[in-house]
Amino acid sequence: MDLDKGNVYSEYGTFTHDALEKLLDGETTKEQTLENWQTYVAEWRNNPRAFQFDTSQIRDGYINNLTEYFDNITIPKHQGSFSNEKPVMTRIKGANGGTEVFVGYIDTEYTDEDGNLVLVDYKTSSKSSFSKSKLPEKSRQLRLYALGEHQTLDIPLDKIKCRFNMLKYCEVHFKQENGKWKTSVQERSKWVEKMKTKLTTKLRKDDDIQGFEMSELLDKAIAANSLACMPKNIQDQFFIQDYLIEIDINEDDLNELAKEVAEKCRDIRSFEAIPNLESYLEYTYPYDPDNYFDKKLCGYHTSDYFKEKEGLLEDIEPQADLDKVNDDMVDFGDIFSSQESDDVFNELFG
DNA sequence: CCAAGGGTAGCCATGTGCTT
DNA sequence: AAGCACATGGCTACCCTTGG
């Protein structure tokens, strides 16, 4: 059954991934990438049938932050070329013997200056869902890729780096009054505003700047989200970088992950073997139209399949792009019964 | 999925009093 | 005047919950 209905986040996320892929493959320049983004947003705004954000605040935050990203793309220092959407195969021992084989696609892989193999996963989502306690779960897919590259390329684990690049955010580095440097993570479109108190402290110490000039300078910098109008010595006390969340890779964790994934595969297979699964689910997890997740995000309950079945045809929303699919990873262990592979993947990593 | 708000713990800038 | 220890208030990161 095709449940790939999509939502505004998957539309924007897909565009963003494609744009970065073209840039790192050398097909486009940074300037073209920014232009393509602006065109994409403009067309989205003009398309009344497009998926919508839930509120204007969410929309503006999302678009403004990503616009700042596209306007300030930094290409990491690297040796050789970038691989984008590179397939990687991972084999793990099945819970009931045999081998589970996964194939997935890494957003970006490259070798850094120190010879480390770097695996990058781009995220356009909010960092709240990537807090420390949620990271082990969020990083399962990435860690499985790391295990796969460790297996196939025979690269030691300590030479493999895994990270999420949280595109909506940046790391602000600033010099404290005691001379020490510190880091703060901020939404890209608001980082100067968030530094207002620090900028004020520094400006106050500058004898050449009068009180009225200060607030003018601050307003100007905040409006432009840039310190370009500030005195040089103040500019030198700030810089921004991509906000990367590093995922620690070690043998014990990966062994545990492989075990968990193998058990999950076993559980999913037995789950899918339940007779009359759909009736079972309707009874066990009934659709709640007041639940935001059910109504807007759940792949099953937002699908045309479900709506047609339930006679909710008036709820069927415009389809922005029928061709886009999001099959990040396929379970090759089940290649001969591939029907269930997407479901297995979604259960594991969705 | 998102933002917002509450609570908590830890860090930092600042001021004060004291000493050298 | 400069250095130090300490208290204070402010700020921030982090986590969790709530509600759309």
Topology:
Layout: H1 8-24, H2 30-46, H3 56-71, E1 79-93, E2 99-111, E3 117-123, H4 135-138, H5 140-153, E4 160-175, E5 181-187, H6 191-194, H7 196-204, H8 211-224, H9 232-235, E6 238-247, H10 251-272, H11 277-284, H12 292-297, H13 304-310, E7 329-331, H14 341-349
Parallel strand pairs: 3-4
Antiparallel strand pairs: 1-2, 2-3, 2-7, 4-5, 4-6
This protein binds a DNA duplex (20 and 20 nucleotides) through helix 3, strand 5 and helix 12.
Protein name: PD-(D/E)XK endonuclease-like domain-containing protein
GO molecular function: ATP binding; DNA binding; helicase activity; hydrolase activity
InterPro entries: PDDEXK-like_dom_sf, PDDEXK_AddAB-type
SS element count, helices: 14
Summarize the biggest pleated sheet.
Answer: 7 strands, mixed
How many separate structural domains? 3
Termini separation comes to: 17 Å
Proportion of residues in β-strands: 15-25%
- SSE-based structural type: alpha+beta
| Average pLDDT number | 79
Question: What's the total count of β strands?
Answer: 7
Radius of gyration: 23 Å
Describe the global form: globular
Proportion of residues in helical segments: 40-55%
Organism: Ligilactobacillus agilis
Pfam families: PDDEXK_1 (PF12705)
Keywords: ATP-binding, DNA damage, DNA repair, DNA-binding, Helicase, Hydrolase, Nucleotide-binding
GO molecular function, one term: ATP binding
Describe this structure in words.
With 350 residues, the protein is of the alpha+beta class. The chain folds into three domains: 8-71, no CATH class; 79-167 and 245-349, no CATH class; 169-241, no CATH class. The chain has helices at 8-24, 30-46, 56-71, 135-138, 140-153, 191-194, 196-204, 211-224, 232-235, 251-272, 277-284, 292-297, 304-310, 341-349, and strands spanning 79-93, 99-111, 117-123, 160-175, 181-187, 238-247, 329-331. A hairpin with a 5-residue loop joins strand 1 and strand 2. The radius of gyration is 23 Å and the shape is globular. The protein starts with 7 loop residues before the first helix and ends with a helix. The model is unreliable at 315-350 (pLDDT under 50). It binds a DNA duplex (20 and 20 nucleotides) through helix 3, strand 5 and helix 12.
